[in-house]
Design brief:
The chain is an alpha+beta fold. It has a single domain, classed as 2-Layer Sandwich (Alpha-Beta Plaits). The protein has two helices and four strands. Bound molecules: iron/sulfur cluster (SF4) (2 copies).
Length: 73
Amino acid sequence: METPYLIQVSGACRGCGACVDQCDRDNLTIVDGRAVPREGYVCVGCRDCVKWCPTRALSLAPARPPTSFIRAR
Ligand code: SF4
Ligand code: SF4
């Protein structure tokens, strides 16, 4: 399954691990004191990790741009 959302970790990450604990899908790990998405992760966009990050280091982005709306004629 392709991930619907990309996880982005900014330089504000302090490696506290709160996001690792919050993700039910085990999408994140800590490498060299910083949160890193695991290879092959599938993020469903629940935002639990985003909400619990004390430094607001996490953000999500759609993996694909929204399809343009085509009006039916
Ligand atoms: S948004 Fe939800 S599924 Fe995605 S990495 Fe964060 S906690 Fe996990
Ligand atoms: S919760 Fe925030 S500061 Fe803590 S490890 Fe995750 S991204 Fe880094």
